[in-house]
Structures are given as structure tokens and as C-alpha cells.
Amino acid sequence: MSTASNPISGPSQCGERDGNARIMATKAASLADDLVQRFEQQIERGEMAPGSRFPTEKTITETFGVSRTVVREAYSRLAARGLLISRRGSGAYVAEGAQYRAFQVTRDEVSEIDDVLRLLEMRMGFEMEMAALAAERRTDASLAEIRKALATMDSSTDVDESVAADAAFHAAIARATGNDYFLRFTEFLGVRLVPSRRLYLQGSDPKKHQRYARTINRDHEAIYAAIEAGDANAARRAARQHMVKSVKRYENLKASGKAV
Q: How many Å apart are CA 158 and CA 128, to the nearest integer?
């Protein structure tokens, strides 16, 4: 007696179902993004005042043609950003002070190379002025901290060490300015760029990691030399050159089709 294979459990069927599930999940996430952006803009423009009620799930599903799951995901994100508060048995409301929430860039917002490029574009002027101030205000202690980060990155042979040393270098420059806001903003940006930095360090070849570290360190050494010399203009130029090269590397990654 012959037996027939069960088409439901066949590998091709399972693969198709998994693929469809991923497509549906991606579509749902995109629709939730659209809703979040729409409500954020309405709140920022004052069209939805603090304390006002968000539309009900039913209203949104009928108005925008999305599922309740999409609405709930969007509301969850808005709540995480401090824009929405839920009141049991009453509904969702715009949080008090929502228009004046702190600036933030979430990890989810830096999910594509274009996102990283925009962040680098904004960061360029920041890094330039930070390096210039560091050159004007550096001390023996701050110079020693920058040199230590340089040495660590130059000798690094693995991903984590390279990423940590890179972040430590920029943090040391921020501290050298004597302005705590530079340090806080540098740390804020660094956390969001760590995942994308790993793009250059994928794989397990220690020599590849070291080549990357030394390439980046040549730019870092130029910045350090200008800071050590107390030359603000040279520090500004060196920092700009470093950021321009970073932008170019990401543009090349984008052209190659590699994802963050």
C-alpha cells in the first residue's frame, strides 16, 4: 500500500508559509510606522492637544483600512515614546507635555543605511566643533585618554574591542571639551551607530579587524595631532575628513546592497 506525503507539512509548503508570514509582518510594521508618523505630526503641529483622546481602534481600522493588530502596535510605539497614555476603560489620550518630549532616535529608526547616512550628515558639524573645542581646552590628562583609545583600537583584533575603542576615542574628545553636553550627546549617538559599525567587522578574520582599525586610526591620529597641537582649525578639518570618509564607506555599502 503506497503512502502519500502530506503536502501541508512538506518543506516547500512550510517555507512558503514562513515567507508569507515574514512579508505580512513586514507590511504590518510598515503600516504601524505610517500611523505613528501621522499621529506624531498631528501632535507636533498642535492638531492633537495634550489630554485629547486618540481615535478608537475601530475608527482607525475603518478610516485607514488597517487591522487592529497594526493599530495596537502603533499605539504601543507611541506610548513608548511618551506620546500616549492609556486609561483603563476610557481609551488612549495624548500625554501631557507630549509636544515638549526629549529628542530621541530609537534603534528601530536606524534600521537602514539611509538612516545612518542622515545621522552621519547631522553628526559631521557636531564632530568638527567638538574637535575644535577639544584642541582649545585639552589637558595632559585628556590627551592621555585619547592616546589610550588610539592604542587600544590599533591593537584590536575582534569586533567588540574595535567598536569599544572607536567609541572611547570620540568620548575622550568629548570629555576634552570640558562640556558635559558634548559627552552626553556623543554617547547618545554612539549607542545608535554601534550595530552599523559591525558591518565592517563581520566575519572572524582577526587580520580584517586589524586592517579596519588601522585604517580608521589614521584619521583618528590626524585628529589627535591637531588637538595635541592646540590647532582648532586643523582639528576641525581632520574631523570633517574623518566623517566624509565614513559617509563614503556607507554609500559604498549601500551600493553593494548590504543591509544594516
A: 28
pLDDT in tens, 210-259: 666 677 889 999 999 999 999 999 999 999 999 999 899 888 878 877 65
Reported pTM: 0.59
Longest Cα–Cα distance in the chain: 89
CA distances from 221 to 123, 136, 138 (A): 19, 17, 15
What 224-231 contacts at long range (C-beta under 8 Å, 24+ apart), as own/partner pairs, is 224/143, 224/146, 224/147, 224/150, 226/131, 226/135, 227/131, 227/134, 227/135, 227/138, 227/143, 227/146, 227/173, 227/176, 228/138, 228/143, 229/135, 230/135, 230/136, 230/138, 231/135
Residue from 90, 174, 168 nearest 130 by CA? 174
Q: Are 127 and 111 in contact (CB under 8 A)?
A: no
- 107-256 falls under which CATH superfamily? GntR ligand-binding domain-like (1.20.120.530)
Q: Which residues are CB-neighbours of 32 under 8 A, at least 6 positions away?
A: 70, 73, 74, 77
Q: Cα separation of 254 and 248, whole Å?
A: 10
Architecture per CATH, domain 11-100, reads as Orthogonal Bundle (1.10)
